[in-house]
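Example 4.3 (complexes with small molecules)
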Amino acid sequence: MFLSREARAATDQVLAWMREAGMDAKLDAIGNAAARYEGERPGLPCLMLGSHLDTVRDAGKYDGMLGVISAIECVHALHSRKKRLPFAIEVIGFGDEEGVRFGTTLLGSRAIAGIFDRKALDAADATGKKMAAALAEFGLPPERIPEIARKKGAVLAYAELHIEQGPVLEAEGLPVGVVTAINGFSRLRVTLRGAAGHAGTVPMKLRRDALAGAADCVLAVEKTARGLPELVGTVGRIEAKPGAINVIPGEVVFSVDVRAPHDGLRNQTVAAIRSQIEKIAAARTLGCEIETLQEFGVTACAPRLMQQMERAVERQGYRVRRLPSGAGHDGMALAAITEICMLFVRCKGGISHSPLESITAEDAAAGAKVLCDFIEHFELSA
Ligand SMILES: [Zn+2]
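Answer. The structure with zinc ion bound is encoded below.
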C-alpha cells in the first residue's frame, strides 16, 4: 500500500536493482522509484518505461511489478553490453496506481505528468491520516511534488509492459499482445434514503426500503451494461444502514463503475443509468443522490508506437494480436505529456488482483525480449 512500511522496503529493493542495472536511481517526491540511464551523451530526452509498485489487498505478485522489473532487466542488458542509445531511458516504479489507500488513483504517474491535484494531499486514509502527513512521515515534503513534473519534450514516449488481466491472449495461445487503447471509466456514488423501521411491525405496503430499491438499481446497471457489447458496468460496493437483521434498511450507499472503449458510449450509458436510478427511487419514494467520484476518458495508444511494438513482437517470432485494455494504467496520466504504448503479457485464466494471479517464466521472458527489442529499435519521431 502507498507510503506503507512495506512499500518503503519494496521501493528500496527496486532502487537497489535499478543501480545494479547501471542506472542513477532515487526515491522521488511522491514516493516513486525513479531511475535514469543516460544515452550517448548526458541530458538527452528519454524513453520512459515503468509500471506501478503498489498493489491491492490480497493481490498477486505480477500486476505492476512485472513491468518494473522487465524494464530494469532491459536496461541491465544494455548496460552489460556497455551500449548507449541516442536517447536516455527512465524507468519509474510508480508509488501509487491503484488508489487503495487514499481513494484516488494514479498519484505517482500524475505527479510525473504534472497533473497531480494538490487537493489529493488532504485526502485521508481509513485511519484518518492525510496524504500530506503520510508523505512527510515517509521523509517526503509535499511541496516538492511539482519539481518532479517532466517538461513537454523531455519524454519522447512512455511504454509499459503489464499482465493482461484478461483471458484474450490465453484463449488465442499467444504470450504477448499490443494494446490499442485504455478504456475510459466513470465512477459514481449513489445514496438512497428511505425510512428505517421495525421489520416485524411495518406493513409491506407502507415501507420505504432503501435496500430493496438499491437491488432494483443494481439489476438496472447490469441490464444496461449487458445490452452493450463493449461496455461493462459493476456495482462493487454496497452498504445498508442501520444494517440489522430486524430493521428495514433506511439508507443505502452503493458504487457504480462503468467502463467503455468510447467516451460517447460511456457518457450516454452513465446518463441512462442515472435516470433509471432516479426513476426507481421516485417510484419507491426514496430520496436519491448521485455523485460522480472520478471520470477518465479513453487513452489511445499512439499508432506509430503500436507499429514499432508490433515489429518487435514479429522480430521475436510471435504473432501480433491487438487488444484494448479494460483496466486502467499509469499511461492514462502520462498521456498528458507524451505518447504512450503498452505490451500485455498473458496471465493464467485472466485472473488478477488475487493471489491466484500467475504467469509462466517463458511468458515473462517473451515479454522482456519484446520490450528490449522495442527499446533498441525505438525511433525518436515519425
Ligand atoms: Zn496494474
